């Protein structure tokens, strides 16, 4: 029978714990918080680590102390006595569980209104500049009408071609008119775009798809590449030291 490999000494350090970010329940911050905990857990709580039990207790307490607001309340209201319990509870309560096609379809629907809102913001900036430069009526009215015509053309060319063509037929006079017509007269087109966009993402790897892809398309979804945590570079050169948190795991 082969001898078992000797245990390695890897006491967890305060320097490592400093890399744990705070988490308050905001969904987009959850992946970074969880991945940091998982990376530290993998290095310091492996079966080959002599201090794995005490390391886990220290990491568990550190994770709890980095929770704020709703995240802290939810974990405290659930019986968590292991780091993996904390991760499970946070995922269940704060992760956005919609599928990638659903999320991208939502972007497709919202894009036209969000683009219009940006243009409207720029319109306000230009008109404010006119007024600060001392432009008054009737010149201000004339320049505003010219600006509105330019912004409507920009909107029509900046949104989905199908939606732009449909909206152009409705002849919006300005951005506010375009907003009203998008909401009241373009619902069928928006719903069709939502359906087609969702199918496009689901079938992005289907070899039967035609190759003549239209001008507007949703980019293929790829999970983001998580960069390696900076503390990994320090672990190899880190010397073991006295750990004053040396408490057994419950």
Supply the key terms.
single chain, 250 residues, mainly alpha, 2 domains, elongated
What's this model, at a glance?
Residues 234-250 have a biased composition (Polar residues). The chain is an all-alpha fold.
Write the layout of secondary structure elements.
Blueprint: H1 14-17, H2 30-44, H3 52-65, H4 69-77, H5 83-94, H6 100-132, H7 139-158, H8 161-169, H9 175-185, H10 187-202, H11 231-235
Describe this structure in words.
The relative contact order is 0.13. The C terminus is likely disordered. The radius of gyration is 28 Å and the shape is elongated. The longest helix has 33 residues. Helices cover 59% and strands 0% of the residues. The chain has two domains: 81 residues; 102 residues. Helix 2 packs antiparallel against helix 3. With 250 residues, the protein is mainly α. The chain is built from eleven helices and no strands.
Task: Give the class from helix and strand content and strand pairing.
Answer: mainly alpha
Q: How far is the first residue's CA from the last residue's CA?
A: 33 Å
What overall geometry do the principal axes of the alpha carbons give? elongated
* Oligomer category: single chain
Distinct helical segment count: 11
Mean pLDDT: 77
Strand content: under 5%
Unreliable residue stretches: 195-224, 230-250
What is the alpha-carbon Rg in Å? 28 Å
Order of helices and strands: HHHHHHHHHHH
| Helix content bin | 55-70%
What is the total number of structural domains?
A: 2
Number of distinct beta strands: 0
Largest sheet: none
């Amino acid at each position: 029978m082969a001898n078992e490999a000797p245990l390695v000494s890897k006491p967890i350090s305060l320097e490592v714990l400093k890399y744990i970010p705070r988490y308050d329940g905001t969904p987009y911050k959850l992946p970074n918080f969880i991945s940091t905990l998982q990376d530290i857990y993998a290095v310091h709580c492996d079966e080959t680590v002599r201090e794995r039990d005490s390391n886990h207790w220290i990491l568990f307490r550190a994770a709890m102390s980095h929770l704020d607001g709703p995240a802290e309340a939810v974990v405290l209201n659930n019986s968590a006595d292991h780091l993996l319990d904390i991760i499970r509870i946070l995922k269940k309560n704060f992760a956005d569980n919609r599928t990638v096609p659903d999320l991208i379809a939502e972007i497709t629907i919202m894009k036209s209104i969000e683009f219009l809102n940006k243009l409207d913001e720029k319109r306000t900036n230009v008109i404010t500049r006119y007024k600060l430069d001392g432009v008054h009526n009737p010149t201000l009215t004339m320049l505003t009408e010219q600006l509105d015509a330019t912004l409507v053309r920009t909107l029509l060319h900046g949104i989905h071609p199908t939606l732009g063509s449909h909206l152009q037929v409705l002849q919006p006079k300005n951005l506010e008119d375009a907003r009203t017509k998008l909401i009241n007269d373009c619902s069928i087109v928006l719903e069709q775009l939502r359906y087609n966009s969702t199918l496009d993402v689901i079938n992005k790897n289907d070899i039967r798809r035609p190759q003549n892809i239209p001008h507007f398309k949703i980019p293929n979804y790829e999970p983001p590449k998580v960069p390696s945590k900076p503390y990994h570079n320090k672990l190899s050169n880190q010397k073991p030291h006295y750990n004053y948190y040396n408490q057994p795991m419950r």
